[in-house]
Design a protein that fits this description.
heterotrimer; A mainly alpha; B alpha/beta; C mainly alpha; B: alpha/beta; Dimethylsulfoxide Reductase, domain 2; 5 domains; 6-stranded mixed beta barrel; C: mainly alpha
């Protein structure tokens, strides 16, 4: 009997151990890319732009209001600001100090990351056209849905859903990271909850029909 | 939501010098490339935004560009739906004088031809059979030297085209030819109607093709004219024809359509009264008709006495009476390529006072301007090797004339073919024309109606329109757009009354067309002296048959021979795909002891020409004819060898090195290059046999005799009644089963929306535009001939065609059949994994990614509209993947699919409505089938909204659902077919 | 069982050869302990070849697509589901013999129940294979099970008869397997006691420490009766559920209430024919003439002629129902079934299932092993065609004449059909080779001569303790 009990104990230990290991090592099911945070061609900081500078999400991702895709901003959108802002404030101050010290006109400082942007749109350090054709920036897509899922930003924006609801605290992310697991259950649960109208409020029914996303 | 940023998106310095074309190049291919790369599951997916943002183009948002269809010469106005810089779907422009919002199957299919990787890319010089690609400038330089030589030496220059209805191109042609001493422009049409203008030259003194106004005709008499399918301008005619028979609008009247024809045409089997007419008797019958009309008018004319000897005398009396009763509102037409016959047609119309009413000579058609008579002269010159330069554009004479026109004997042959064809194979130079979706052009299909064609995509292949090529060779190297604008500025703008040219042009560009006041005067003098009674031509001797050649609705004259969608489109009459065949009447087939699929050699009795084709037994055809479709046997159709799945028992769609079908023109062109009608041929069995790929096996609502149950010999699936019976009792057609309905289940959805579709079977002509439209919209794959043979066609929308009546009064009932979106769907309850479920809006949703492929749903579907992906269906041409609709999932192997009522369009309309903070309005959503239907037979909407059009239609007494007694509660309503047969033939309700 | 032993009625000819319990043990265990015979090797090679054909066909089909079968937009099921229903039906006889006849105390079942039950398990394995490979995406077959998931969660469709199949077949397989295994335990102990080395280790593990004590026997008996009681309703339920695949759908020819009893009786019919066929071979090959005697054969023939007649009645009922329904589609479905393009299959079905078994009324036919063997084969062919006629023949021509279509099977489908038999025979031959084909301890209870069976039981008990 002792031997048998020992075996049973060992078996349960094994099961518990596996579960604990699975939880701690955050084993995910295939297809779940939660936490995906790839290195981008330009070290663009959402923390700086969305957080510190407080730029509205849809200033850059203007497709979200009109289209299925939020879109990744064109380089020309970046240039709206970066034709003026060419480096970090610290570098700019440093250069001004240095210039003052050396009693000369401060030079335009171009940070190495913005250098890439200017290359993309075909401008040189002085923001003069180099004459070469620009080359679009190949960003790495973070939020990927399977081909058989059709998510529409426009409807969610129209209904006043905050970007953070799905994308998480982007304003604190240095590099963009997939916040939610983007699983079907995650979508469906939100749709279910938003179908429940709080007292006295009429909430538009968020459909849980399959055909809302799959067609 | 900061929307004020829009204007700041573009930088000023970037705006300058950045054309839309440049932008499209960047955004279109950036994203297309990314999305294609995204299909393969790599570790990382790239997202490549455009360099420049734009107000107009937001990735993922569809936009429409107005243009003109180049699928044939009819010149329908089209709207190209584009996504991310590439066109993916064509629709008719609502209100366009020709297309009136519809589009034919060939037009629908032509978006795929844009992505044909076999098209020529840039100029090419062929030396000793080897092609050499050149830059356009280099080609121009070399050719200019040659042309200058010809100008100096007075060399003979000939330009051979099909109908050129682009006014700016016509000007460019004139200007180019002017610079030579001996230069001529000749034109002919693959599907010629030149006998009609020729007849008008005799009777009206002017070579003119009238515009036929079917909507104004109360009696239509057509002799062998397939005007609902392929004759001159079928989309326009189908729209007009149905308007003249619209039971909802007119209510009181319905045109009566007589068709006398040799073969069984689509138009014929839609006719109210149809009879079989031997092709050699057409003249005699028309003479008889004219005689009878003369008698009605109390006049004595050139046809006096013809009625006595005319065949079908009894029918002619009825027709004449009907015509006379509705004179001024009737129409007589004939498809015959015989000016003597066409003169009689004109005479009949003149006697009836139809000119100015149903035949419009002021806004005359420009859709067929070719003059075949000129070909004989050209052939004589070529035979004598007198032509120094022959330029062929928009035509393929080597194929069309089956080699009778010896183009290779021109000293220099320049072909402007867009893709390799029979003529370009022989050419010394190829200066390819672009696809109409990537070029600038204009057209004047009807006098006074001017359409514009504009690029919808940066050119995929380097081509140049004939206008630009001729201008460049004449030393004018302005861009094509400038040439076009120049013409419009000089010729059309002054007629418009708009002050500013740019406003005028931009508005025309936006609308796609402009209608200008037509000031032409037409002589109303009818030259009666031109009219002569025509006797019957000699009938074929015993054992021989008269040959009838006809175009198919998708292939036309063969110009769409490289389009897989149109090859796989079932012929609306025979339901056969991927082939042409020798149609024989059942009696003739029996007499010749030939069965379906037996390969026969068709030989001309007084010529050496012969081709081999399988036999198709076609009901309703005249016993003395063999009918063969044109447009097959095209060079390069061996590209379809690998179309469809390749597997152990799979057979190729076409044997490697072979072609699809046979060129029937080989039988009908004489050595002088003339195309002949009604040649006499004999058939001889070769011993071989093939299985034709048909999508329908049983062609009647009547059950096979030996299986039928007493009292149920015929299934009443397509409700039909006569106009007289319907007028007497609107419920005449509604012979549904009023069964007590008991439900086991509670209502599946309780919302305020049930999407439904209403299809008016009286309007549907069976033209199959919806079938191709659905294929284009929903990424329906092409499966190839073998799979169709195995009954695995993938079309979500099919048109069931049932023949009714006997051989002499054959009629076809067409019934478009797609998912009926049943409320009590039998498919839904059987799926073990919930891959097909009911939506809150009454849709039967198919979720591809959940489907495991048990096929149980397809088995239980009473309508058999579910389609299974038996294999992974690749495209034989990967470039054609660009025509895929990004809004519809590509289905993988092993999953079920079916009509979704264009759910993507429903979702798009709903998303837009939400964005604008309003409800979806009736008419916001049009599924692809509805949008393309030239006849307006299909209406989509919310059945639960009493104000909606569909709810109104569903309340009509004519409305019924298929297989109502099963209580599956379909959401598709059919409106019974009403025909306007002769009174004594009224069948009444069955 | 003790009481049973004491009062056991022993028909004189149930076991021939005047066997003693020792003889029985020797006869049954003997072949397992010797090298396989040439006959076995030949049969095994044949079965493996069939299996290989099936494996290659199915592999090709899964790699290429269901299109390698001759199905089409109209006929979505052909050989696949025909094979499925056929094999499920085959399984029924085993359960009937081992469970129902046990409860009804039919002694003659003892010789055949072990192999009949093995047959059940192998047939259900074959049956289970086809619904999986007939899927367009068989790699997702696990979606038919309700399991927790991250899709919302997304469950299965409880209204679908196919899902009921999953549970019916799953339950049936589980119960049959357990019942069969439990029945094997005493014999495994016998094998354990007679062997050494690896075989002893394996049989020792499998016999779960069987000691043959009275308490063990008593518990064992209780377990057997309980399992038999559990298995009995399954005989009726499984094929009834399978028939609902058809009966609950709107396809004319499928949509009929007679299908559940029709299917159950057909299953018993075909199952018995298969058992009888296998027994006729086995008694020859394994020299079991003394254990499987004419008594068994006659009894089974009687069951076959009885069930065959009911099947005939079911066919007639089906026709009557169609006629009486007044539904034009229903009537046409049967008109087409008999006289349409697949009329020949209907003729084969009636000939094999209704006409052929009637010859078994004759004692002469029953006693001719050759005739009986031929009839059993005919019944199996006939029952396969019955399913084929119902499935493909009904789908072929339903409501809209425009969608009517023929069905022509491909070589790959024949491959899968052959492979099913290959799998079945391979498993069966392995079973013959490694496990006692005849229930040793149960046979001992029905011995007509020699020692009293309890002695042997005592003997086993003693050895078990040792």
């Amino acid at each position: 009997m002792m031997a048998l009990n020992g075996k049973i104990l060992a078996f349960f230990m094994l099961v518990i151990g596996t579960v604990v290991l699975a939880r701690t090592a955050s084993v995910r099911l295939p297809g779940n890319n939660q936490g995906y945070e790839p290195v981008q061609p330009i070290a663009y900081s959402h923390r700086l732009h969305a957080g510190e500078l407080g730029i509205d999400c849809q200033y850059c991702h203007y497709g979200a209001e009109r289209s299925r895709h939020a879109g990744i901003p064109s380089a020309s959108v970046c240039m709206n600001c970066h034709k003026t802002v060419t480096s970090g404030f610290d570098a700019f101050l440093e250069e001004r100090e240095a210039a003052e010290k050396e009693e000369r006109e401060p030079q335009r400082i171009v940070s190495s990351e913005l250098r890439k942007l200017f290359d993309a749109v075909g401008l040189d350090e002085k923001l003069e056209p180099t004459g070469e054709l620009g080359k679009p920036i190949e960003w790495v897509r973070v939020h990927n849905l399977p081909d058989f899922v059709y998510f529409d930003h426009r409807v969610h924006v129209a209904k006043g859903l905050a970007c953070e609801t799905c994308h998480g605290p982007v304003q604190s992310m240095e590099r963009i990271r997939q916040h939610s697991d983007l699983s079907m259950g995650w979508c469906v649960n939100c749709h279910r909850e938003s179908s429940i109208a709080p007292e006295g409020h009429l909430v538009e029914h968020a459909s849980t029909d399959c055909g809302v996303c799959h067609y | 939501m900061d929307q004020s940023t829009e204007d700041e998106v573009l930088l000023p310095f970037e705006r300058e010098g950045s054309s839309r074309r440049g932008f499209l190049q960047l955004v279109g291919f950036g994203i297309a490339g990314a999305s294609l790369a995204g299909c393969s599951r790599g570790p990382t997916r790239r997202a490549i935004p455009a360099l420049e943002a734009s107000r107009e183009f937001v990735p993922g948002r569809p936009y429409w560009i107005a243009s003109s269809c180049g699928g044939c010469e009819a010149g329908c106005g089209v709207l190209a739906r584009c996504r991310d810089g590439r066109p993916i779907k064509l629709e008719g422009i609502p209100g366009h004088p020709v297309s009136a919002g519809g589009l034919c199957p060939a037009g629908q299919g032509s978006v795929l031809s844009l992505y044909d990787s076999k098209r020529f890319d840039g100029a090419r010089r062929i030396v000793d059979g080897r092609g050499q690609d050149l830059r356009w400038s280099a080609a121009d330089e070399e050719l200019t030297v040659i042309l200058d030589g010809l100008r100096a030496s007075g060399g003979r220059v000939r330009l051979l085209t099909s109908t050129v209805n682009s006014p700016s191109t016509r000007v460019a042609i004139d200007r180019f030819l002017e610079s030579f001493q001996d230069a001529r422009h000749l034109s002919y049409d693959g599907l010629s109607a030149s006998a009609i203008p020729s007849a008008h030259e005799l009777t009206h003194g002017e070579r003119v093709l009238p515009r036929y106004r079917f909507e104004r005709a109360k009696t239509i008499v057509a002799f062998d004219a397939d005007f609902l399918a392929t004759w001159i301008s079928p989309v326009e005619f189908a729209a007009g024809y149905t308007r003249g028979r619209d039971l909802d609008v007119q209510g009181e009247t319905m045109s009566r359509h007589y068709q006398l024809e040799a073969r069984t045409s689509l138009t014929g089997c839609r006719a109210d009264v149809r009879t079989r007419l031997a092709p050699w008797e057409t003249g005699a019958v028309l003479s008889g008709l004219c005689d009878l009309l003369e008698q009605c008018g109390g006049a004595r004319g050139p046809c006096r006495g013809a009625a006595e000897h005319a065949p079908h005398a009894e029918l002619l009396v009825t027709i004449a009476a009907d015509l006379w009763e509705t004179r001024g509102e009737s129409l007589v037409i004939a498809g015959a390529q015989d000016s003597e016959v066409q003169v009689l047609v004109n005479y009949a119309n003149e006697l009836l006072g139809n000119y100015g009413a149903t035949l419009d000579l002021v806004h005359a058609s420009q859709q067929r301007l070719g003059d075949e008579r000129e070909l004989a002269e050209l052939q004589a010159e070529l035979a004598d090797e007198q032509v120094d330069l022959l330029i062929v554009a928009g035509a393929n004479p080597v194929y069309d004339l089956a080699g009778a026109l010896t183009v290779e004997r021109a000293k220099l042959l320049v072909s402007c073919a867009a893709a390799p064809d029979e003529t370009s194979e022989l050419a010394d130079w190829v200066l390819p024309e672009p696809h109409f979706l990537e070029s600038w052009n204009d057209a004047e299909p009807l006098r006074g109606t001017f359409s514009l064609t504009q690029p919808t995509v940066p050119a995929l292949r380097s081509g140049r329109t004939l206008r630009a090529t001729l201008a460049a060779l004449g030393g004018d190297s302005r861009p094509d757009r400038e040439l076009l604008r120049d013409h419009w500025r000089r010729e059309l703008h002054p007629r418009s009354g708009v002050e500013d040219f740019d406003t005028f042009f931009d508005r025309a560009l936006d609308d796609g067309f402009v209608v200008l006041d037509e000031q032409r005067r037409v002589s109303d003098h009818f030259v009666r002296e031109a009219v002569h009674a025509v006797a019957s031509a000699p009938a074929p001797v015993t054992g021989a048959l008269s040959l009838v050649l006809y175009p198919k609705i998708g292939m036309l004259d063969g110009r769409h021979g490289h389009n897989p969608w149109l090859h796989e489109l079932p012929d609306p009459v025979s339901k056969i795909t991927w082939d042409n065949y020798a149609c024989l009447s059942p009696l003739t087939a029996e007499r010749l002891e030939l069965e379906e699929g037996a390969v026969v050699e068709i030989a001309v009795t007084d010529d050496a020409a012969a081709i081999s084709l399988p036999v198709h037994v076609q009901r309703g055809q005249h016993d003395g004819v063999v009918a063969v479709a044109l447009g097959y046997g095209r060079l390069g159709t061996d590209r379809f060898t690998d179309v469809g799945p390749q597997w152990l028992e799979g057979r190729p769609t076409v044997e490697a090195g072979s072609v699809i079908g046979a060129n029937a023109r080989l039988l009908a062109v004489d050595s002088a290059g003339r195309r002949l009608d009604g040649r006499h041929v004999t058939l001889a069995r070769t011993g071989a046999s093939v299985e034709l790929a048909a999508t329908q096996d049983h062609h009647s609502l009547v059950l096979p005799e030996h299986l039928a149950i007493e009292g149920h010999e015929r299934r009443d699936l397509v409700h039909t009644t006569s106009f007289a019976a319907w007028k007497a009792d609107p419920h005449a057609a509604a012979h549904g089963h009023d069964l007590p309905v008991t439900d086991l289940w509670s209502d599946d959805h309780s919302g305020d929306t049930t999407w439904g579709l209403a299809i008016d079977l009286s309007k549907c002509t069976g033209c199959s535009a919806c079938v191709v439209s659905c294929q284009a919209e929903n990424n329906v794959p092409v499966v190839g001939r073998d799979e169709v043979r195995r009954h695995r066609e993938m079309s979500w929308l099919r048109i069931d065609r049932y023949f009714e009546g006997g051989e002499d009064d054959l009629r076809a009932l067409h019934q478009p059949m797609m998912c009926q979106q049943c409320d009590h769907a039998p498919c839904e309850s059987v799926c073990p994994v919930l891959a097909t479920v009911h939506s809150a809006e009454g849709l039967n949703q198919q979720v591809y990614n959940r489907c495991v492929g048990t096929r149980y749903c397809a088995n239980t579907c009473p309508y058999k509209v579910r389609r299974f992906n038996w294999f992974e269906y690749p495209r034989e041409d990967a470039l054609q993947n660009h025509a895929l609709n990004p809004d519809v999932t590509i289905r993988s192997r092993g999953v079920m699919e079916k009509c979704s009522f264009c759910l993507q369009r429903i979702q798009e309309a709903k998303a837009e409505a939400r964005r604008e903070g309003r409800d979806v309005r009736d008419g916001d959503i049009t599924p692809a089938c509805q949008q393309s239907c030239p006849a307006g037979a299909i209406v989509f909407g919310n059945l639960r909204d009493p104000e909606s059009r569909i709810a109104q239609l569903a309340k009509r007494p004519r409305a019924y659902s298929m297989l109502e007694e099963l209580n599956v509660q379909p959401s598709v309503r059919y409106l019974a077919h009403v025909h306007n047969g002769r009174k004594e033939e009224d069948h009444g309700a069955h | 069982m003790h009481t049973e032993l004491q009062t056991a009625h022993r028909p004189p000819a149930l076991i021939g050869g005047n066997k003693t319990p020792t003889d029985v043990t020797r006869d049954v265990c003997g072949p397992l302990e010797r090298r396989p015979t040439r006959m076995w090797w030949l049969a095994f090679a044949g079965a493996l070849t069939l299996l290989a054909i099936g494996v290659v066909s199915v592999w090709y089909q899964i790699a290429t697509g269901i299109g390698t079968w001759g199905l089409n937009r109209t006929v979505g099921w052909g050989f696949d589901i025909t094979n499925f229903v056929f094999w499920v039906g085959i399984g029924h006889a085993g359960t009937l013999i081992s469970a129902v006849l046990l409860l009804f105390r039919q002694k003659w079942r003892t010789s055949i129940n072990r192999s009949a039950e093995a047959m059940t398990i192998f047939a259900v394995m074959c049956a289970g294979l086809f619904p999986v490979i007939h899927m367009g995406r068989p790699w997702l077959a696990f979606w038919v099970f309700p399991y927790p998931n991250f899709r919302g969660p997304l469950w299965v469709n409880w209204r679908s008869a196919l899902l009921w199949d999953v549970f019916a077949i799953g339950t049936y397989f589980t119960i049959s397997l357990v019942f069969w295994y439990v029945g094997l335990i005493p014999d495994l102990a016998t094998l354990r006691d007679r062997s050494r080395g690896l075989r002893k280790k394996i049989t020792g593990l499998l016999s779960l420490g069987w000691d043959g004590s009275a308490r063990t026997w008593s518990r064992y008996e209780m377990a057997c009766v309980l399992l038999a009681s559990l298995a009995t309703p399954l005989v009726v339920s499984v094929h009834s559920v399978v028939s609902t695949d058809f009966a609950t759908s709107v396809v004319p020819g499928w949509h009929t209430t007679v299908l559940p009893p029709y299917f159950v009786i057909g299953a018993v019919f075909s199952g018995f024919a298969m058992v009888l066929m296998l027994m006729l071979i086995a008694r020859k090959v394994m020299n079991f003439e003394d254990y499987i005697t004419t008594v068994h054969i006659t009894a089974m023939c009687k069951v076959i002629v009885f069930t065959g007649s009911i099947v005939g009645l079911a066919y007639a009922t089906e026709l009557f129902t169609a006629w009486y329904s007044g539904s034009e589609y229903e009537q046409f479905a049967f008109s087409n079934r008999i006289r349409g393009p697949m009329g020949w299959a209907y003729a084969v079905m009636v000939l094999c299932n209704v006409v052929a078994p009637q010859f078994l009324w004759s004692r002469r036919v029953r006693s001719s092993l050759g005739m009986v063997f031929t009839i059993t084969i005919m019944v199996n062919i006939g029952m396969w065609f019955e399913r084929f006629v119902i499935i493909a023949g009904s789908l072929q021509r339903d409501y809209l004449p425009s969608a009517w279509s023929d069905y022509v099977p491909t070589s790959i489908e024949f491959g899968a059909l052959i492979g099913g038999f290959g799998l079945f025979f391979t498993l069966f031959l392995l079973f013959c080779r490694f496990l006692p084909m005849i229930s040793i301890f149960e046979i001992k209870t029905v011995l007509s001569g020699g020692h009293h069976a309890t002695e042997e039981v005592e003997e086993t008990k003693e050895r078990g303790v040792a």
